[in-house]
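Continuing the batch. This is chain 6 of the set; chains 1 through 5 are on the previous pages. Same settings as before, nothing changed between runs. Recording input and output for traceability.
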Amino acid sequence: MKPPVLPCAPRRALVCATLLLGLAVPAWAERADRDKPMNIEADALRHEDQKQLSTFTGKVLVTKGTIVMRGARLEVRQDSAGNQFGILTAEPGKRAFFRQKREGLDEYIEGEGETIEYDGKADTVRLIRRAEMRRLEGATLLDQVLGSLIVYNNRTEVYTVDGAPTAGAPSAAPGGRVRATLVAGTIAFDRR
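Output for chain 6:
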């Protein structure tokens, strides 16, 4: 079956979503991913041209090179300066997901949260509620961080983890504490 041809405004929305998700790549990402085409699949797309808002709903799947993102709903906004802000949310009781290969290594970064937010102006990625970030070598878990909120700043390559539950939602880590499992030879930490 041939995909439907989108009218001009929804095509612009798809381009906006493509740019947004392409910019959401952390600095540890596979460099070749930047030049790969992005594919977004969903059950439906709604674009509001006046608000510069595009909403993809229903089994949203995003692929771009080694990047894979999944969720139930992707909402993309663009301001007058061209900055984009996106929110990927999961189905109730589940978590949205992303995965990407690290540059020059047989390693992958995976992250999950009930909501994943990207702010193009601030260049940050936020994993919200029951947040988890993992580093894998092949299928072997090397590092894992759990908390209620994980914020990654692409410009500074710094991430922070908060273990305290947010808005009545439980933390991914038991007892509302940050939990980290790091590869041997590195410093282990725990938020006290």
